[in-house]
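USER: I would love a firmer grasp of how sequence relates to backbone shape in proteins. This is the protein in question:
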Amino acid sequence: MAEDIKFRHTMPVQIRFSDVDQFGHMNNSVYFSLYDLAKTTYIKDVLGDADWSKLAIVVANINANFFMPVFFSDHLVIETAVVHLGHKSFTLLQRAVTTDTHEVKCECRTVMVGYDLATKEPRLISEDYKEAICKYEEKTLEELSKERK
């Protein structure tokens, strides 16, 4: 799925002792915390000091595929890319990858929706934000607006 995607955003993560379960591998619920942290970092790096009092972004859908376990001794990065950019939403693809073997341990797809805090309704993603995402991903709006499977 992600073979043709260039992940420009990577965030190294440290696996904590409490992340590991009785079987010696990272608990599946921990991945979502790591993906959330990487999401936040991506958005800050790409959109800078966005005015979140005017436009919030909320998670509308999140799905993960777990391919193989992560162990305490693994060195891990979270890779993030926008793979679809619509009018009111965008889709992030994230992967947990080992730095030494480059194995993809888990992959996560998240649909994020622009949200108006005052009206409590979905809202268009601003053209400035779309432009910033396209520039960062080095893709045109036309390329990012195509549906990816």
Summary: The mean pLDDT is 91. The chain is about 25% helix and 35% strand. Residues 28-47 form the longest helix (20 residues).
